Amino acid sequence: FTPSRPPRQKIMLKPARLIVTTEPDKVFQATFELTGQMVTLGRATDNNISLPLSIISRYHAVFSRVNSASQEPTYKIIQRKSINPLLFKGKEVQEKELENGDIIEIGKRGYADYIVKLTYRAPEYGLE
User: How many other CB atoms are there within 10 angstroms of residue 36's CB atom?
Assistant: First the structure.
């Protein structure tokens, strides 16, 4: 007879993250954790993620938490009123549900001195 163990619980090891870099030079590089229902991104200091980059509008985008098809929470990025559009695979998007590894660019290659790359990393889970 072996004692039964309670089922192992799935626990979050790392929350969703946003890796921000600039190209062609990686002058700016930072990682931000995405937590909560809504995370704001922009140049203004009252954003949850404040980026001191001229290509970023004061209130550029919002990350809104959603439940994906797999039932794992993820984020959707939503464009606010900003001059430079959000680009996913070279196409402008007003909003995009993010999947692990998705890269959103701000600024058009060839037009701006640099572009900003937002790389999404999904939460990482393990068993307790």
Answer: 10
Pairing of strands 61-67, 124-127: unpaired
Q: At 63, is the secondary structure helix, strand, or coil? A: strand
CA distance 85 to 38: 20
What tens digit of pLDDT does each residue of 12-33 get? 789 999 999 999 887 899 999 9
**CA nearest neighbour of 78 among 24, 22, 37:** 37
Cβ atoms of 83 and 112 within 8 Å: the answer is: no
List pLDDT tens digits, range 83-103: 899 999 999 999 999 999 999
Contact 115, 108 (CB under 8 A): yes
pLDDT band at 69 (very low <50, low <70, confident <90, very high): low
Q: How many whole angstroms separate alpha carbon 21 and alpha carbon 32?
A: 11
Give how far the C-alpha of residue 58 lies from the chain's centroid of Cα atoms, to the nearest Å: 17
Kindly give, in sequence order, each residue whose CB lies less than 8 Å from that of residue 111, ignoring residues fewer than 6 positions away.
Answer: none
Q: What is the pTM of this model?
A: 0.86
Q: Report yes or no: 55 and 84 within 8 Å, Cβ to Cβ.
A: yes
